[in-house]
Design goal:
The complex is a heterotetramer, with 2 copies of chain A (about 220 residues) and 2 copies of chain B (about 240 residues). Chain A has a single domain (about 10-220), classed as Glutaconate Coenzyme A-transferase (3-Layer(aba) Sandwich). Helices cover about 15% and strands about 30% of the residues of chain A. Chain A is built from 4 helices and 14 strands. In chain A, helix 4 links the parallel strand 12 (about 190-195) and strand 13 (about 210). The longest helix of chain A has 10 residues, at about 10-20. Chain A is globular and about 50 Å long. Chain B has about 240 residues and is of the alpha/beta class. Chain B has one domain: Glutaconate Coenzyme A-transferase (3-Layer(aba) Sandwich). Chain B is built from 6 helices and 12 strands. The relative contact order of chain B is 0.19. Classes of the chains: A alpha/beta (about 220), B alpha/beta (about 240). Chains in contact: A-B, A-D, B-C, B-D, C-D. Chains A and D meet through strand 4 and helix 2 of A and loops of D.
């Protein structure tokens, strides 16, 4: 049982990044999703886009080499790479809505079996933080989610229907959590890959929606 | 030639009346007109409607941004893509005033915010965007289908003033921004009646900026102040 | 009666240019209106804007000095001046609709007493040439017109109601023709200035709308 | 790295099928993709819908522009801000075909044309513009009042292909235009599925173009051909 640990953020990011296809334009949400850029297959060309106006930017700046006027959408200092381009905010979101982003990876409070995404406001709290999430959720060709499998209190985040206010209906296609990789199909959640040492029943017990366990379910993969 | 150069931030904001609607550029730091905000705080205008990506930082900080106007009770209403801190553990005066109903807020998806500002500076009556369809933000808004997809009707935003920070300018007010300093600058400059700019670098003569590489033409710029060495510079923050 | 000649294009352009105020952004239509730039008061700073994306451009290029990639909206080669800026077509029209142009000077087939402008299509002809006229007519803060007083066949161009399809309703404020300067007021056309040697009755006879002749009507002025 | 560089105009247009919708940049000369138009004529695609400021020159000329496609009967429909010559004395094949009902045309005010293309590349459902209100172009269109002013509802334009001419590019397809060569280029590149560019200058390495001065980011550009010295150059015309 030594290996029976929830998946690390790094493992989730690695797994999500395996889905990025050569030539894709990728938008990474604030927080965990930014880790994906550490794990992209070296032979795949990925263009990172940031909704504050960057196209084709580089990794996080190391301390002491930050440019105070070069940040990604999470406010992190990044470095330019050859071929970078800068847009204003309207043009940056124009390209997102127009479908030029192949995938956005977002964090979430909840994801529902119908693909609903909830990540901008906790019910009962006044006000919220949308940022670019609603535009990305409806504009990107693929919406992938990375999140803890349950809340700190143990409540499931993978649910039949979102209890939290939704960001966009029916948009999520793939979810990586600390317990596995879940595909959203017309029939609901399919458990594609499972964290090492866990059983499907254990994962189902921690989940708020019916999981389909296909015959070809496998252990959670990473590339590195 | 009309002189657009002001000697001080104080002079550039001196006539702004109570109740003004002001757009503030800036995203996560770059492009934030910190010196103009400080001058506006000192000037005292109140009852302001602010249009910006956020109403300032959520955490306590000695960095000047819109938080100083909120904390001083100068803001009546905020139009922004964040009206609560990213995490419930953060709080602050904005959240308190907003929860207490003492500040008004209009929460707008960031792309819709940018597009509404762009529409305000493009003379359009309204537009339809897919962002927000099927969410609680669609409540009370017209939903309409085009080509089989649903969109929300959104209205333009305009302002009495826009404040922004740019990298350099010529004497006519032609502006260039550096990297992500650009963000809301070009669209806000067009959507406001009076645009006030603080500048990283000294103003150059007309003709010194390549016409193909002007980001904001001078016809949109009314007042400029060069940031002195001892004023607030955009610096690298931690966290 | 030696001086009894219809006004020249130059005189009309000179007179219209006298109306340009210091600091104005001016858009000149194709044809006659472009002449206005020759007559601007030297102490007034005028910014010329062209709907194909120029802000603050210079005079027509002399032969041999044309830049094949620098034309105004009439397709004429112009020269850059210090402080010029280039925009794309969407941004160029955005600023026109948003009211940044203080005046546009346009040619016309007809102008009506209610300010209606007709300048894009002749009735009975299929198709038309709008170009930027409809956007300029609704976007510019002032719309001035320069035109021959009558058609080649002698029909009036200043009319009670346009017979030609209109470009925009109720937008024209001032008209210079070969016979005078006409202001459009809530009461209709006012003959402000008259071509030398003509009588108001003669001008009225060549006009398709009732002219108000004010006590302070004067002879047509030019600056040069 | 995906290779976007094509060795010939022929190769860059080889797969364009009959019935395609194609946007063509260019305004009064500058920005017109003359070599791509010539190659498309030779390629033979027909039944095209063309979106451009005009369907080519009205007068006879040996200058290659959209007129060569119209004259060869390749155009089924034109969306443009001119569907007749500026003067009745001018005529030409387009006017004849149009009068005879053999070519379809949609006449659009130029600013509306630009904004519809922009909206197509901005993922919007529609927008309201003041241009055309109260004219015969408003017939059949929704008129709606916002803030006391009337506007027309206008729909986005998108295309299968965009063709344009730019000044230079890097290997990733980041483009710069020179002066009024820019015109429709940036908005058409975003509104089309496949964007094909002819270039004044040789392609430079990524990093050679200042990121702050890229007019069209490479993610919007699919195919590039450098114009050889013996191909069609934009030259000064008389009249």
């Amino acid at each position: 049982m030594a290996s029976r640990e929830p998946l690390s953020r790094q493992a989730m990011a690695d797994r999500i990044a395996m889905e990025f296809e050569d030539g894709w334009v990728v938008n990474l949400g604030v927080g965990m999703p930014t880790l994906c850029s550490n794990f992209v297959h070296p032979e795949r060309e990925i263009t990172y886009q940031s909704e504050n106006g960057l196209v084709n930017y580089g990794p996080l700046a190391v301390e002491g080499e930050e440019d105070p006027n070069l940040v990604n959408a999470g406010g992190q200092y990044v470095i330019p790479i050859p071929g970078m381009a800068v847009l204003d905010h309207a043009d940056a979101f124009a390209l997102i809505r127009a479908g030029y982003v192949d995938v956005t990876v977002l964090g979430a409070y909840e994801v529902a079996a119908n693909g609903d995404l909830a990540n901008w406001r906790l019910a009962g709290r006044k006000g919220g933080g949308i940022g670019g999430a609603m535009d990305l959720a409806v504009g990107a060709r693929n919406v992938f989610v990375m999140m803890e499998h349950t809340t700190r209190e143990g409540a499931p985040r993978i649910v039949e229907r979102c209890a939290q206010p939704i960001t966009a209906p029916g948009v999520v296609k793939l979810v990586a959590t600390t317990l596995g990789l879940f595909e959203i199909t017309p029939d609901g959640f399919v458990l594609r890959e499972i964290a090492p040492g866990y059983t499907p029943d254990e994962v189902q017990a921690a989940t708020g929606a019916k999981l389909i366990v296909p015959p070809d379910m496998r252990e959670f993969r990473t590339r590195e | 030639m009309k002189n657009k150069t002001f000697e001080s931030f104080e002079a550039a904001v001196a006539d702004i009346p109570d109740g003004s609607t002001i757009m503030f550029a800036g995203f996560a730091g770059p492009g934030t007109p910190r010196n103009l905000i400080a001058a506006l705080l000192a000037q005292g205008a109140s009852g302001l409607t602010i249009i910006s990506n956020t109403p300032g930082r959520w955490a306590d900080s000695d960095i000047v941004d819109l938080k100083v106007l909120v904390d001083a009770g100068r803001v009546r209403k905020a139009v922004a893509s964040f009206t609560a801190a990213p995490h419930p553990s953060m709080s602050g005066v904005f959240a308190e005033l907003y929860e207490a109903g003492e500040i008004e807020a209009e929460l707008v998806p960031q792309g819709t915010l940018a597009e509404r500002i762009r529409a305000g500076g493009a003379g359009l009556g309204a537009f339809y965007t897919p962002a927000g369809v099927g969410t609680e933000l669609a409540e009370g808004k017209e939903v309409r289908s085009f080509d089989g997809r649903d969109y929300l009707l959104e209205l333009p935003l305009r302002a009495d003033y826009a404040m922004l920070r740019a990298h350099r300018a010529d004497a006519l007010g032609n502006l260039q921004y550096v990297h992500t300093q650009r963000n809301f600058g070009p669209i806000m400059a067009r959507a406001a009646r009076i645009t006030i700019v603080e500048l990283d670098l000294p103003i150059v003569a007309a003709g010194e900026i390549d016409p193909d590489h002007v980001h904001t033409p001078g016809i949109f710029v009314d007042r400029m102040v060069v940031v002195p060495a001892d004023a607030i510079q955009e610096t690298v923050r931690n966290g």
